[in-house]
Write a structure and sequence with these properties.
There is one protein chain. The chain is an alpha/beta fold and about 450 residues long. The chain folds into 2 domains: about 270 residues, LarA, N-terminal domain (Rossmann fold, 3-Layer(aba) Sandwich); about 150 residues, 2-enoyl-CoA Hydratase, Chain A, domain 1 (Alpha-Beta Complex), CATH 3.90.226.30. The protein contains 18 helices and 21 strands. The N and C termini lie close together (about 10 Å).
Length: about 450
């Protein structure tokens, strides 16, 4: 299918697949070959911006098809892992993720260079410009009226002639639906915009933001920053069956268009509705989530179906740390949004991205001087993190060895999600009210 692009001087948006469709590897490879054949890569410096290991994505299939199409036309191709502020991927992890034997990247992807987005190194970045306080207020509908924010991005992207995003679209707690320009900001961006964009999402709250279609305030902010990138921006966006290598859909075009097309499919693929709330959820986290910073998705995606006063248990015996890259979380703990806003003078100097993560995992609630903090649901960690540390960050603790998964599955008051982190659960809207959805552009 070919759709009309919403961007001027852009390649036409092309797409195959739909909700429920299972594309074959041959169909995906052929689509990529045809789509990219329209782009002139000759003599160009190309940056491929791809997800890290916390996102389900059949990268070996996709990158193999891209390599076959681009061949030796490009002057250079650099694969940049969009870590945001996640920890760097080891050589062993990169090999598994990208599909080559350890130490043999050159044999599988000859001529390509693979790099982590090293957010911890100042030399990683190029400054593109500034979003003023006045413009920030416009983009966020007045949620934030400043400060002005510098827009910095990985120099491999800024120095490229073509920046091609390759990655999936899922419901997301900060922006509504992930993917597209989000792979630039926060995927390979500086800390300033990461903190600010995540705090905008936190002000709206994860409960109101996650799975929201269209251009949310955070998406508007991301698109504004992406427009500053001095290169041709393209994207291969896709909808992946969670936890598998199966694609339901794949789209190619400018990031704004290909993302919108896939967000529409994701809204019909990655959102599951239930008729009634449950008292308890057991979120079983896959091993790809290595700390609570990333495994918190097991809360975001399930909290909407939990009854007031209920509980979400994050079950991940393999996790032993709150956050590898964000030590402030262990200092401030997990609290709802109003806890921070009501005591802003105490917290305004803490990185706003850490405050946002704290509120996202703690969930909905209130705070006042008279009543203190009151949270809608209980958040319990059944992990390898010691009990004293869990309780010190304002969460409940369960010994993971005490969890009987089969008994939980048999309990009518408990919902067990065996592969938590990507599928969003919601309560079905009352009769006569439409469910939130995204529409295909064009």
């Amino acid at each position: 299918m070919t759709l009309v692009s919403t961007a001027s001087n852009a390649p036409p948006l092309t797409m195959i697949g739909a909700p429920g469709v299972e594309l074959t590897p041959a169909e995906v490879t052929a689509f990529i070959g045809t789509a990219l054949a329209e782009i002139d890569f000759t003599g160009k410096r190309v940056a491929l911006v791809v997800p890290d290991g916390t996102r389900t994505c059949p990268l070996p299939l996709l990158l193999g098809a891209i390599h076959d199409t681009v061949g030796d036309k490009a002057f250079s191709v650099t694969v940049v892992i969009a870590l945001g502020t996640h920890q760097g991927m080891s050589n062993e992890h990169l090999a598994r993720h990208l599909g080559y034997p350890i130490g043999e990247a050159e044999q599988v992807y000859p001529g390509w260079t693979v790099v982590n987005h090293e957010s911890w190194l100042p030399e990683t970045f190029v400054t593109l410009g500034t979003i003023t306080a006045a413009r920030l207020s416009e983009l966020t509908g007045g949620l934030l009226n400043g400060p002005a924010v510098d827009v910095r991005i990985n120099r491999h992207v800024a120095d490229a002639d073509i920046a091609l995003v390759v990655g999936p679209v899922f419901p997301h707690e900060v922006v509504g639906f992930s993917g597209g320009n989000k792979y630039f900001f926060p995927g390979v961006s500086g800390q300033e915009l990461i903190d600010l964009s995540h705090w905008v999402g936190a002000l709206i709250t994860s409960a109101d933001m996650i799975g929201t279609s269209g251009i949310t305030p955070v998406r508007a902010l991301i698109n504004e920053a992406a427009a500053m990138i001095p290169t041709q921006r393209l994207a291969l966006c896709m909808v992946v069956a969670s936890g598998t290598d199966t694609l339901h859909a794949i789209a190619f075009g400018v990031p704004e268009d290909s993302w919108a097309a896939c967000a529409a499919v994701s809204a019909q693929t990655h959102v599951t509705y239930r008729d009634a709330p449950v008292r308890r959820v057991l979120s079983i986290m896959p091993s790809k989530y290595e700390d609570i910073w990333t495994a918190a998705k097991g809360f975001y995606k399930l909290e909407p179906i939990v009854a007031d006063g209920g509980e979400v248990i994050i079950y991940a015996p393999h996790i032993t740390q709150i956050s590898v890259m964000h030590p402030h979380i262990a200092e401030i703990g997990y609290h709802n949004r109003d806890y921070f806003l009501g005591q802003w003078e105490r917290f305004e100097k803490v990185p706003w991205g850490d405050l946002a993560h704290s509120t996202h995992l703690r969930g909905q609630g209130t705070w006042s001087v008279a009543d203190g903090e009151r949270n809608r649901v209980t958040v319990t960690l059944a992990t390898g993190i010691p009990e004293d540390i869990v309780r010190s960050v304002n969460l409940d603790y369960l010994d993971p060895a005490s969890i009987d998964i089969a008994a939980c599955e048999a309990d009518p008051h408990t919902f067990v999600e065996a592969h938590a982190g990507e599928v969003l659960y919601r309560l079905r809207p009352p009769s006569g009210m439409p469910a939130p959805s995204a529409a295909l552009p064009g």
